[in-house]
Amino acid sequence: MLKIDLQLGDKLLASFESNNDDISIGRSDTNDIKIDNLAVSGNHARVRKVLNAYLIEDLNSTNGTFVNEKKIERYELLDGDRVTIGKHSLLFHISSDKKQAEAFDADKTMILDTEKQRELLDKNR
Question: How many CB atoms lie within 10 A of CB 54?
């Protein structure tokens, strides 16, 4: 799951949650995340999910796309990365399936008490 907070300065303007594999960002009404500001190109950037990673790509925008204050053409996003487009920031919160599995301990093998199981089986016979 991907969560994106749109900010202007310290002010939170909107939050978006998505499982989509393709998210468009720009000033045009056709974008998934619309940023209504003249410093933002009509179709400014795109976020794509590739396997278990999210990549952001600048779409030859006029003013560029920056991740953690560095201009990028394409970049693999990490949890907590801040993307700057014009004067707006997009803060990315990425929860991976691995993190969710670790929280649930789904990867660990459960140890059975076979002695108790035998006792229960014997009682029920």
Answer: 22
